[in-house]
Amino acid sequence: MNKKVLNDICDRLRKDDPKLTILNLNHCGIGNNGAIQLSKALFYNTQLVVLFLDNNHITSKGCKALCTSFKEHPSITYIMMSYNSIGDIGASSIGWMLSSESSSELLSSSYLSSAAPPRLNSSSSSSSSSSSSSSHDDSNKKRKINNNNNKIQKLKLIGCDITSVGAKYIADGLKTNKTLKELVLESNSIGIAGVISLLKDGLVYNKSLESLYLRYNNIDNTQNTNGSISSSNDTNKKVPSSVLLLQVILYEVLLPSNETIQTLSIFNDDHHQNDDRDNDSNYEYYEMLVTFYLQLNKLGRRHLSNIEYQYQLWPRILSKASKNKNTDILHFLLKNQPQILV
């Protein structure tokens, strides 16, 4: 991208142009320098909602800079940063951005080569000088921004060289995140260990995420029943990775805690080719149970467990179950809330 064009875009961001709500910079090659320049401009902006940054030669350095501005931005809800080699270090910044930790914890560390300027409110930027009392008010507003979680609802990081280490960072961020609804991490190198981290360290605690996409992440090995990864030549008893992951999803995520996740896309279309065919019945059994609970979450399972929930919504929930022709959902409802029959 021409440097002047990027300067003009950043100028509009700094001026908080209300017409600039969607910014598409895909395949513009802005690099780390452009990412840092964009990050600094975003600290003054409150209007941007959607940002596309695919394939821009951004590494962990540029990712860290962007995450500091994303962290406290009041309106950005959709970020696409796919096909940038941010790696595990960049993933650590992503995890921090998603978490409830304050910005000062990042800025006080060595994450940024140069700290970005604080976000300015329009009232404070209109005058060049202010009294000590107004400065005190501004600092309070800044702290409120830092302590509030961002508004990010959709995040796509396809093909970003993230391994199981980076997946663990992101999982830690999901623990305290309250806004993210869709996360796409396809075509990385997360592996089965990284997927399990996202499930057990992230989804077990997260109460907002509805869709998680993890296909094409080298989940093609088998696993011993004692939990250690083995090769296909191992003579010990092995559990296919697909069955193992379905067991984790069912017994450690869906049954005990998570009532919000509705879509889990983990396996490639050809994943059965790498599994033991003798275990197909096990796979189908666990897949059926996982699908049932995902559907139940979609129908509003988190409300079914709360008897205080408004009763006028029960007909709507029941009608949805009826349309899906899933009598098991009705059975689950009556079994766990028998008092509605009284």
Relevant terms:
342 residues, alpha/beta, Leucine-rich repeat, LRR (right-handed beta-alpha superhelix), 2 domains, seven-stranded parallel sheet, three-stranded antiparallel sheet, 8% strand, globular
Write a structural description.
This protein is an alpha/beta fold. The chain folds into 2 domains: 3-122 and 133-306, Ribonuclease Inhibitor (Leucine-rich repeat, LRR (right-handed beta-alpha superhelix), Alpha-Beta Horseshoe); 307-342, no CATH class. 46% of the residues lie in helices and 8% in strands. The chain has helices spanning 3-14, 31-42, 60-71, 87-98, 103-107, 122-125, 132-147, 164-176, 191-203, 241-254, 280-298, 301-304, 314-323, 327-336; strands at residues 22-24, 50-52, 78-80, 154-156, 182-184, 211-213, 222-224, 229-230, 238-240, 263-265. The chain has a 7-stranded parallel β-sheet, with no helix packed on it. The protein has a 3-stranded antiparallel β-sheet with strand order 8-7-9. A hairpin with a 4-residue loop joins strand 7 and strand 8. Helix 4 (87-98) runs parallel beside helix 8 (164-176). The termini are far apart. The model is unreliable at 107-148 and 222-236 (pLDDT under 50).
Shape: globular
- How many individual domains? 2
Percentage of residues in DSSP E strands: 5-15%
- The CATH architecture designation of the largest domain is Alpha-Beta Horseshoe
Q: Output the CATH class name of the largest domain.
A: Alpha Beta
SSE topology sketch:
Layout: H1 3-14, E1 22-24, H2 31-42, E2 50-52, H3 60-71, E3 78-80, H4 87-98, H5 103-107, H6 122-125, H7 132-147, E4 154-156, H8 164-176, E5 182-184, H9 191-203, E6 211-213, E7 222-224, E8 229-230, E9 238-240, H10 241-254, E10 263-265, H11 280-298, H12 301-304, H13 314-323, H14 327-336
Parallel strand pairs: 1-2, 2-3, 3-4, 4-5, 5-6, 6-10
Antiparallel strand pairs: 7-8, 7-9
